[in-house]
Write a structure and sequence with these properties.
With 589 residues, this protein is of the alpha/beta class. It has 18 helices and 27 strands. The protein has a 7-stranded mixed sheet, with helices on both faces. The relative contact order is 0.09.
Length: 589
């Protein structure tokens, strides 16, 4: 079902991002490459821009300094704010033939334990940061007196000049960066992304986004240390000669209007984010602000990185239709860091139906049975589309490692040139996840090694549907229940005036079997908590036929999440078992 339809995808250099930016600096040097909107000194946003020629010159200057400090292939942690310095630091690593380790800048709102854990695992020789951030970075590097990586200030490196830069010898198998996954517990895992993986995935995504052309505008807010932000907000636009316009994640969370206003002002054709970003725009952008927006330039909007809700897509389209948002721009997609980013997308050249209904009980039994939208027990699900070019997907029974048939639920396994090299310094885990082999229904081995995604799904009419995370399944009476489906039932069953935040559903082992626990964030100080508990139990029983043993009402923000706002159900379970969830003490208990 895949068709290559974007000629611009052919311009992506097989020898990587460095060669492509160098080429664009020569052919389109005066074109804007990257812009950032900064709101500290100007509430309307101060725009700072670098052209392709300036970007290449500054990246070479950074790389020249790095090459004096570290041999080729060394790891360099990039710990910068979401601004131009991050782009220069990341590109500088690639220009120097070094391995970038993208990380967030530490701040008062983010736990620093994970940054320290990644630094310890990656063991970088150098750390690139800014003068403003350096004071917060140094304490994370190593215990006092212990050896730690050398800290370099990106602001100073840019001023050094590029005359000593030496073009690195890079091949498709050369390691480009380590993409650390968010992992709910334990030590984070670094995905080994090669220059070949990066170029392949950029080509694959560009080929199905036919409107992405040189000099077009892509508007993003997703952080660069996240795979979606790095590819959508940096690698794809710079590979195509487009203009990447960015607002920081913090500025977006403070005011989602800023993202929509950048789309309006710069006439962006492509934007995207996780499902919660669209919900935030719906809930926080006022009618007065909407009257200043013109979203008619948009050709596509990606919704990925977490469960895509049909309800959210419909609400967003209705909320911004008067702002010029056209129908049919929804781009629900599927991907993961272990595949660089993208795996599936809506097919090119057709407008497929995106929302389908399946029998909830049949899904719990491992089979996708289509039903009418209004049928009792119907679960509406959004398709994530078809495989990208050269990507192969198979659904496998996670216990027998046998290929499943059409409509059977199993673990999603994939192959493709975008599948990464493995995990950093984890050979056993790499063998388990990246080198899996399966057999067909006849017992004959299926050729090739596969990436085990850990996600459950099925295929229907050639389209992929996600049915949950294997490790998060709630198994009651032999039936598999997707916790995200139960969480959606909980959230839609409660009155919006209660100020419901996130929801986490998981199971725990008890003496008489598996028990279901629902954790709900409540903010409204007048909420009747006992009524909330009763409503949750009633809704889940009616919708899923299972009993919620305990409903825990926690304070707003009490549910742990990843950097991309995914609920960490495993960590939430641990907090619950240790009695560490902060209770909501509002209204009637």
């Amino acid at each position: 079902m895949w068709t290559e339809a974007n000629p611009a995808a052919l311009d992506v250099r097989v020898d990587g991002l460095v060669a492509r930016v160098r080429e664009l600096a020569c052919t389109s040097g005066d074109d804007p490459a990257v812009s950032f909107a900064e709101y500290d000194d100007d509430p309307d946003g101060l725009i700072r821009t670098v052209t392709y020629a300036e970007l290449d010159l500054k990246a070479r200057a950074v790389a020249a300094c790095l090459q004096k400090e570290a041999p080729a292939g060394s790891r360099v942690a990039v710990v910068c704010p979401h601004e131009i310095s991050y782009v220069l630091a990341f590109l500088g690593c690639l220009y120097a033939g070094l391995v970038a380790v993208p990380l967030p800048a530490p701040d008062v709102h983010r736990t620093r334990d994970r940054i320290s854990a990644v630094l310890a695992d990656a063991d970088p020789l150098l750390v690139l940061t800014t003068a403003e951030t350096a004071g917060r970075v140094t304490p994370l590097l190593a215990p006092p007196g212990a050896p730690h990586p050398k800290v370099l200030i990106i602001d100073e490196l840019v001023e050094e000049g590029a005359r000593d830069w030496r073009e690195p010898r890079l091949s498709s198998s050369s390691l480009a960066y380590l993409q650390y996954t968010s992992g709910s517990t334990g030590t984070p895992s670094g995905v080994r992304v090669t220059h070949g993986n990066l170029a392949a995935n950029v080509r694959q995504i560009a080929a199905v986004t036919v409107y992405l052309q040189p000099r077009c505008v892509i508007a993003s807010w997703v952080p660069f240390f996240h795979d979606m932000g790095l590819i959508m907000g940096l690698a794809i636009p710079l590979s195509l000669g487009a203009h990447a316009v960015n607002v920081s994640p913090g500025a977006f969370i403070q005011s989602p209007y800023r993202w929509m206003k950048l789309i309006t002002d710069f006439r962006a054709v492509w934007a995207g984010g996780p499902n919660f970003a669209y919900e935030l725009c719906i809930d926080r952008i006022t009618d007065a602000q909407k009257r200043t927006l013109d979203l008619s330039s948009l050709e596509g909007m990606v919704n990925a990185s977490e469960v895509v809700r049909p309800h959210s897509m419909d609400r967003f389209n209705r909320a911004f239709a008067a702002c010029g948002l056209r129908e049919g721009l929804d781009g629900p997609a599927y991907g993961l860091a272990e595949a660089t980013l993208g795996v599936t997308a809506p097919p090119v050249g057709v407008k497929p139906e995106l929302v389908y209904a399946f029998d909830r009980d049949a899904l719990a039994g491992g089979r996708a049975q289509p039903v009418a939208d209004t049928a009792p027990g119907a679960r509406q699900m959004v398709t994530c589309g078809v495989p990208l070019q050269d990507v192969h997907i198979t659904i496998v029974d996670p216990e027998t490692w046998t290929k499943a048939g059409e409509g059977e639920v199993g673990e999603i396994w994939i192959q493709g040139p975008n599948v990464a090299d493995g995990y950093w310094r984890r050979p056993e885990r790499t063998e388990e996840v990246f080198r899996a082999r399966c057999v067909g229904s006849d017992g004959a081995p299926v050729l090739g090694e596969w990436l085990r995604t850990g996600d459950l799904g099925f295929q229907h009419r050639g389209l992929l549907f996600i049915a949950g995370r294997l490790k998060d399944l709630v198994i009651i009476d032999g039936k598999n229940h997707d916790p995200s489906d139960i969480e959606f039932t909980v959230q839609t069953s409660l009155d919006e005036d209660l100020g419901i935040g996130g929801t986490a559903v998981f199971s725990i082992d008890a003496a008489d079997g598996e028990q279901v626990v629902a954790v709900v964030e409540v903010r409204n100080q007048g909420a009747d908590l006992q009524r909330v508990r009763t409503d949750v139990r009633r809704a889940v029983s009616a919708g899923h036929g299972i009993t919620v043993t305990e409903v825990v009402l926690t304070a707003w923000g009490g549910i742990p999440r990843t950097s991309s706002r995914k609920v960490k159900r495993g960590l939430c379970r641990d907090h619950y078992l240790r009695g560490e969830l902060i209770p909501a003490r509002l209204g009637s208990a």
